[in-house]
Design brief:
This is Antibiotic biosynthesis monooxygenase. InterPro entries: ABM_dom. It comes from Bradyrhizobium rifense. One of its GO terms (molecular function) is monooxygenase activity. By secondary structure, the chain is of the alpha+beta class. The chain has a single domain, classed as Alpha-Beta Plaits, CATH 3.30.70.100. It has 2 helices and 4 strands. Strand 2 and strand 3 form a beta hairpin. Helix 1 crosses helix 2. It starts with a strand and ends in a 7-residue tail after the last strand.
Length: 97
């Protein structure tokens, strides 16, 4: 299991619009990558937005980040206070309830 993680700082007060755009635009793009298992977005109190996608293979996680960063640059720039970063790697601890 591998995770693709993107993170950016949002402009204050943009959580609702970010959520709408991500649901409508990013989720379909990421969930279309082979090996897709899950997608989560966390909006922290300091306006840091973190998206986490889970895949079967490392190459799939990297492909998701490639697609996501391109989409973010095109569709979320006006809502972000800077550029998004991306990382991918193996999930080394995992548990479910």
């Amino acid at each position: 299991m591998y995770a693709a993680i993107r993170q950016a700082k949002a402009k204050s007060g943009s959580a609702e619009e970010l959520a709408r755009r991500i649901k409508d635009g990013a989720v379909p793009i990421i969930s279309d990558v082979d090996g897709f298992r899950a997608y989560y977005v966390v909006y922290a109190g300091d306006d840091t937005v973190t998206a986490i996608s889970i895949f079967d293979k490392f190459e799939q996680a990297e492909e998701a980040n490639k697609r996501a960063i391109a989409w973010i640059e095109k569709n979320l720039g006006s809502l972000l206070a800077g550029h998004a970063s991306a990382a991918a790697g193996p999930v080394i601890v995992h548990t479910l309830a």
